[in-house]
Design a protein that fits this description.
alpha/beta, 14 strands, six-stranded mixed beta sheet
């Protein structure tokens, strides 16, 4: 048996890969049916292909009988989690913390500013050749609530600071204190929502956050508030959001939706006060250099038998 690493980036394009491992390129191919690069039983580290359909990502898992590490190139691992029953015990699942913070935080600010300042309306007016001035709200002096204060949530706040917001409130699973101030537990959301002009979602998707933004959550948002979702689509109850958008009480900017991809004719496409981008928070020019650095660092730790970074769980230790 050899110690193979399956990489979705050609190994010769990654500088600094440690010796002692056999590197195989596999990204599923254009149609998701690409042949495996070697015997799956020899794979000890599987790096999940990025921006591929769910069936492609999980296709090898059941055959990787000597697997020790699954490394995603996404911050969220919800798609892989659903198939960990196929994986042998003792496998460490690691996410891509450090890869997507810059890009996703940039998009969160882009969506926020574009929505507040009426950029979608300007683009439509430009298409018609129509000069259409208007008065729009500014991000300055607004209260912003970040729901999901991990690495991406903190990166979003870093980028909010220069815009002279009045206040940033932070929410995570449990309370803690940061250099910028307190992080509130999710149980305090009901009291924080009515004060927020902008609510930015950057929380992982799991059982505790699926459907978090439901009818009650939205009802607690103040009139005219903006909801920005750069987390996962199922964090928001689409039906409940559509009802609020149709009423005109709130607006939304969504990089992720449920269902996804959003099918033609879906009411979200044409709901009033909504801006939709096609899940582009991560795939930018910032992705590849950060992804390569992550992989080199993780594989060096693996070869040197050092603790891996970004470990989410180990199979067999958490009941999966």
């Amino acid at each position: 048996m050899t110690a193979d690493v399956w990489l979705p980036i050609p190994p010769d394009e990654i500088e600094g890969l440690p010796e002692g491992l056999n590197y195989r390129f596999w990204d599923g191919g254009e149609d998701g049916e690409q042949e495996f690069p070697a015997d799956p039983a020899d794979c000890v580290v599987y790096v999940v292909p990025y921006m591929k359909r769910y069936p492609v990502k999980v296709r090898p898992l059941a055959q990787l009988s000597h697997l020790r590490v699954v490394q995603t190139l996404t911050a969220g691992v919800d798609d892989v989690l659903s198939r960990l029953d196929d994986v042998v015990p003792g496998v460490q699942l690691c996410n891509a913390r450090g890869v997507h913070e810059a890009s996703t935080a940039e998009l969160a600010l882009t969506l926020t500013l574009a929505s507040l300042r009426g950029v979608p309306g300007f683009v439509r007016a430009q298409d018609r050749g129509h000069w259409q001035g208007a008065f729009h709200p500014s991000l300055a002096d607004k209260n912003v609530l970040i729901v999901g204060y991990g690495a991406i949530g903190a990166a979003i706040e870093d980028r909010l600071v220069p815009f002279e917001v009045a206040r940033v409130a932070r929410v995570a699973r449990s309370a803690r204190t940061t250099a910028r101030g307190p992080v509130h537990p999710i149980a305090e959301l009901p009291g924080l929502l009515p004060e927020a002009d902008v609510v930015i979602l950057s929380t992982p998707l799991d059982d505790s956050t699926r459907g978090l933004v439901d009818k009650d959550f939205l009802a607690r948002m103040k009139d005219g508030a903006l909801l920005v979702n750069v987390a996962r689509g199922p964090v928001v109850d689409t039906g409940a959001l559509l009802a609020e958008l149709e009423s005109g009480r709130v607006t939304a900017a969504l990089d992720v939706v449920d269902p996804e991809p959003l099918p033609p004719g879906h009411p979200l496409w044409h709901a009033p006060g909504v801006l939709v981008s096609p899940h582009v928070g991560g795939p930018t020019s910032a992705f590849l250099p950060r992804a390569k650095r992550l992989l080199v660092g993780q594989l060096r730790r693996f070869v040197n038998r050092e603790p891996l970074a970004n470990v989410i769980l180990t199979t067999g230790e958490t009941g999966v």
